[in-house]
Amino acid sequence: MTIDHVDLASVDLNLLVALDALLAERSVTRAAARIGLGQSAMSSALGRLRALFDDELLTRAPEGMRPTPRAMALAEPVRTALRQIQALVRRDDSFDPATVERVFTISLPDSVEVLLGPRLLAHLRAEAPGVRLLLRTIDRARILAELDADQVDLGIGLFTEGQAHHKMRLLHRDRYVCLFNPARVGLEAPISLQDYVRFPHILTSLRGTAHGVVDDALARIGLSRTIAVTTPSFVAVPFLVRDAPVIATMHARVAHFFAGTLGLSVSPAPVALDDVAIAMLWHASYDADPAHAWLRRTLLRLASEVENSDPSGRDGAIGLGSANDGAGRPGGA
For the residues of 226-247, what is the DSSP string, one character each? Predict the structure, then answer.
């Protein structure tokens, strides 16, 4: 479509910045603070936006301000346009990690943070000391909305949903193994299916549901198990296993990492479980952002180093992410 420069020149494009802030915050006060305007200036901008789009855009509601259908339809195109403009003006062929100043917000499971976080932090301090990280526990139900609202720069985990403007790149695949304390359960690897269902289990679930892929797999062969504890923390599981006669089914790399530290044993899972794919997820408007692209490349390289760092070759599986609760949702096994 040909650009009508005269028509476009009559529009204050700063209004789009205000609209993006208003739709993200759903509050005139917070939107004003977000972009450094006074409240009266933001109220004036809202009035001009309403005239420009011939729509109320935001209406008062008990929970704050509620976007109209027209505003919801505008949200993604406006944000994409602003990100593209930002990427354009920030584009610098001489991008240098050593001098860049940037804060990246990454949502991820604690298992990824334990395995990949130390390498990433060490790399940043050595190569990009001006880059800071804000790590937060991933919420699978909200990650797409958080990416769209520019609240998160990158998500890491198991993803099965998304739209055309959500980009994904595989970090690694992993498989499940069993983690147990032989002194507590009186077993040695490999664990039999009979013993597997005889002992109670620890389940990791980010959603708090006491059902995982193991339960689905057991149900297909007419069996079930007892779940002693459900926890949202992958990192807590090995400590629970250490002190109780229970079994946990978890990703191989995490299991081997803690087995060596806590004196635990690892066994192949005696029930058929699909491998999982751990990926990075981001908004497409950051594709051309040099710093964001550099971070993605860095994570891919570090994930590969984590894979190759296992000298034992015990099972060839590397775990860099959340588990799957059987319905494409982050959860436990």
Answer: -EEEEES-TTTHHHHHHTSS-E
Which conformational region is residue 227 in: left (phi greater than 0), alpha (psi within -120 to 50 degrees), or beta? beta
User: Cβ neighbours of residue 61 under 8 Å, at least 6 residues apart?
Assistant: none
How crowded is residue 187: how many other Cβ atoms within 10 Å of its Cβ?
A: 20
Tell which residue, 197, 193, 180, 194, has the closest CA to residue 245.
Answer: 180
176 forms bridges with which residues in the sheet? 251
**Range in 91-95, 153-157, 189-193, 301-305 the model is least confident about:** 91-95
Strongest mean pLDDT among 69-78, 170-179, 241-250, 282-291 = 241-250
- Residue 299 has, within 13 A of its CA and on its CB side, a CA count of 27
**Cα(172)–Cα(51) distance, rounded to whole angstroms?**
50
Token reading at 154 = 């990158």
Edge-to-edge strand ranges of the sheet holding 265-268: 227-231, 201-204, 247-251, 176-180, 265-268
Write down the H helix ranges in the chain.
5-9, 14-25, 28-35, 39-53, 69-90, 110-127, 143-148, 182-185, 193-198, 213-220, 237-242, 252-262, 290-308
Q: What's the pTM?
A: 0.69
State both tokens at 137.
Answer: 């526990």
3-state secondary structure (DSSP) of residue 34? helix
Contacts of residue 322, Cβ cutoff 8 Å, sequence gap at least 6: 109, 111, 112, 138, 140, 157, 158, 206, 234, 278, 330, 331
In tens, the pLDDT along 310-319 reads: 533 343 333 3
Half-sphere exposure of 204 (CA within 13 A, CB side): 28
Alpha-carbon dihedral sign for residues 115, 120, 123, 125: negative
Instruction: From 142, 158, 152, 169, select the one nearest 329 (Cα to Cα).
Output: 158
Contact 59, 68 (CB under 8 A): yes
